[in-house]
Hints:
By secondary structure, the chain is mainly alpha-helical. Helix content is about 60%, strand content about 5%. It has helices spanning about 20-65, 95-105, 110-120, 125-135, 155-160, 175-185, 200, 215-245, 250-260, 265-280, 290-315, 315-325, 330-360, 360-365, 385-395, 400-430; strands at about 5-10, 15-20, 70-80, 145-150, 190-195.
Amino acid sequence: MNNQNINTMVNGEKPVRRKTMDVVNAGMAKRKKSEQRFQFLGKMAIILGVLFLFMLLTSIVSKGYGAFTQTYVKLDVLVDAEKVDRNNLSSANYSGMIKSTLRDMFPGVEGRREKRTLYGLVSQSAAFQLKERVMENPDLIGQKVEMWVPADDEVDLFYKGHFDRDLPKGERRIKDNEIGWIDQLVEQGRMEKRFNKTFFTAGDSRNPESAGIWGAVVGSFYTLLVTLLLSFPVGVAAAIYLEEFAPKYKFTDFIEVNINNLAAVPSIVFGLLGLAVFINFFGLPRSAPFVGGLVLTLMTLPTIIISSRAALKSVPPSIKEAALGIGASPMQAIFYHVLPLAMPGMLTGTIIGMAQALGESAPLLLIGMVAFIVDIPGGAFDPSTVLPVQIFLWADSPERAFLERTSGAIMVLLGFLVLMNALAVILRKQFERRW
Length: 435
């Protein structure tokens, strides 16, 4: 090639013979610049993607880390024996005891409106907390009980620094007298921030300071458990049949095409299918993790089938042929030789499918899992919600304190998703074989 010449015309005169390498070298600089531009654009795309992801995570963390702490107020509550019937402890006016304690702490407060503001320093859950303690230990009747109760959501935000006390009175969500009471409580050592156990141990609540994610986490667990128990065996069995046993003709081609298409169908379509079939036709209960698991099974099956077929294809045909050569039946060759080698890839695809199901909310909204559920579900047929739907509900709440809870719940959900994807990577690295 180096010895070949190319004829070119110079100013329309006698042709000049140029070597091929001269022509190649003449355009080399231009091609290198083009390659450098492409590499630059690729690097910039990666940098921008990482930057946007960093901005998103920073925004979520900056708004949500406060959900993991809660402001508490120390009260010395007198459990008045005259107001408590020992034969019916649940009927006592515990809310009145909390209010009486607050009036004793601030004796100068007068007027109905000012007293109502004073009572708003602590959460309404303080009365339920006192009720539980008295019912657990009736000997507290007639004694003073030291309690750390959650502060109201507005007081909590102010104590955490979300409200500027120097703003004009009309621009603040908290009044001057409330600021004075808070300062007095701080001076007396009766107000402090603590780790918010309620956020991780309680169900949903109308009051932000009493709301938690445990009910949604349990609902997500039951939903994913049903999804896993149904989708994994069905998906693996379908993949084995289509890849190893199904005859190759138009009908199986039609099935394979539709499985690939179902993987790209919007998730809300599966919610409509679940509403029409499982609830309206079969009459299954709304808001139940069992129904949610059925819907998510339909959604994750295509992903599991596709990944399982890819795992089966990755096993060298010689494994199956060797098993058949020593007298194994086709079924034995698949289940005793091919399937164990393909299982790590199948598990990886299943975990990724479960992670996708964990983050879904649209199909579950259509089957009623958007209901306000306070109690922790005790089984797959109890009313419940899931973590993404809980985030949706809190994001739509008008109270500003729910913004912290929303971002905090997103952080927990992202943590679960990262763990599941990390588990999939570990399994693939640990058990994957290079052929």
